[in-house]
Design brief:
mainly alpha; elongated
Length: about 450
């Protein structure tokens, strides 16, 4: 079974408010307002009620600020500055729907408000709505940040870089994210997070040496950087540099004992090297985090590798109850059932997996084997034909082709595949090779 580190640290920018509107001069109406409107007067010389609310924001006194802004906005619903302030207060209190509504109203009142577009984009990104966040952030990069200066505009570019970064199973082109990051670096100094993101993008682009060098540069400056350690370990694991990754992770866990990401990575490394320490380490991690599906998957996989198919399948059954249409879980479940000689149930699991993911070669291979064990030669041949469209044949599949044609009394096809099996087996399947030779003798008469 293929092994993969399921707990990989995601280098995600922390979206959200970092300073108050009053502190960073981020009043929504500060850039453009229509002449003679309350918004213009508020931007130039905010009324006492709004000024008092912003003073409360500086003190993180959200209730006072909200109360003053609510009263003001009843009489002045188009005041862009007050609307932005109200959005910021709601954002800080995690009232995200209210915050989004206030930010949108602030933008409607002042379409050129850098702060409102930026804050709305960051909020939407934080809610995992990249398609909605991207246009807001892109608009922010075209507007005047006012007294907030280049640092705030760079924040918009960095947020775009995180949104445009390739995601697992999605677009693998890191060009857009790289361009976003370059724009941020044009107007602000490079940070550790920038280096980590650049390294991650290099990794996505297959520039593994450059990525590794970047991670190591971060660690040279900050040996206790947990994100850099986890990212470098992930890269080393992907490149099968297990001893090096093990040394790195053991040293890191001495600094961050019990860290779930680093512990899971160490367990992955130990399992890849067939070290017995992996199983108790993962069991301990699972006991500490029983509801973490990534840890449960890893433990289930290691248990299967150790031959505890029943114990492994208990974990997979729990995972499948929560995710019944996950083809990888169905395949792993089916493989455990095969090892327990429960072929009929395995057939059902593999059949379900092929329906969900017709491009899953492991699912078709498992279905072919289960079909053969349940005396369904036609189903075996169909599964093998589907698998052959995805991955090359091997000795095991040649054997299944041969015995299926043999059961169907299709003599010439059976002879051809027995011969292919013998050519590919190379002494690795002595029992099947003996049977193939016997059948060839009989079929050739």
């Amino acid at each position: 079974m293929a092994r993969a580190p399921f707990l990989v640290l995601l280098l995600v920018l922390q979206f959200g408010p970092k300073s108050s509107p009053a502190q960073d001069s981020s009043s929504a109406a500060g850039s453009v307002a229509q002449s003679g409107t309350p918004a213009e007067q508020s931007a130039q010389n905010p009324p006492q009620q709004v000024a008092d609310a912003e003073a409360a924001i500086v003190r993180s006194d959200w209730k006072t600020a909200q109360a003053k802004l609510d009263v003001w906005l009843v009489a002045n619903p188009g005041d862009a500055r007050a609307l932005f302030d109200a959005g910021y207060v709601a954002d800080s209190e995690n009232r995200l729907d209210d915050a989004e509504g206030f930010y949108r109203r602030a933008i409607a009142a002042n379409p050129k408000s850098f702060e409102a577009h930026l804050s709305l984009g960051l909020l939407l990104a934080r809610e995992d709505k990249p398609d909605e966040a991207r246009p807001e952030l892109q608009t922010a990069t075209t507007l005047d940040p006012g007294e907030g200066g280049p640092a705030l505009k760079a924040r918009a570019w960095r947020a775009l870089a995180q949104i445009d970064k390739p995601k697992p199973g999605g677009d693998s082109d890191p060009t857009a994210a790289s361009n976003d990051l370059i724009e941020a670096l044009k107007i602000s100094p490079e940070t550790e997070d920038d280096t980590l993101l650049a390294a991650s993008l290099a990794e996505d682009a297959g520039q593994y040496d450059a990525a590794e060098d970047a991670y190591r540069r971060v660690l040279a400056k900050d040996p206790k950087s947990q994100p850099a350690t986890a990212a470098l370990a992930h890269l080393l694991i992907a490149r099968s540099k297990y001893p090096e990754a093990e040394t790195l992770l053991r040293a890191a866990l001495a600094q961050f004992p019990g860290d779930p990401t680093l512990t899971a990575q160490l367990a992955t490394v130990l399992a890849a090297q067939d070290k017995a320490e992996a199983l108790p380490l993962l069991q301990q991690l699972h006991d500490a985090h029983p509801d973490d599906p990534s840890i449960a998957r890893m433990l289930a996989e290691v248990r299967a590798d150790a031959g505890d198919y029943a114990g492994s399948d208990k974990l997979y059954s729990v995972l499948l109850a929560a995710h019944p249409d996950d083809p990888e879980l169905l395949v792993a479940h089916g493989q455990n059932l095969i090892h327990q000689l429960r072929y009929v149930e395995a057939y059902g699991a593999f059949d379900r997996a092929t329906q969900i993911d017709p491009a899953n070669a492991d699912a078709w291979g498992g279905l072919a084997f289960a079909a053969s064990k349940t005396e369904r030669p036609q189903a075996t041949l169909h599964a093998l034909a589907m698998r052959s469209q995805i991955v090359p044949e091997n000795a095991s599949t040649y054997w299944l082709w041969a015995i299926s044609y043999d059961k169907l009394r299709q003599k010439q096809q059976a002879i051809a595949y027995y011969k292919r099996f013998l050519d590919a087996a190379q002494g690795k399947f002595p029992n099947e090779q003996w049977q193939a030779q016997q059948r060839l003798e009989l079929l050739s008469k």
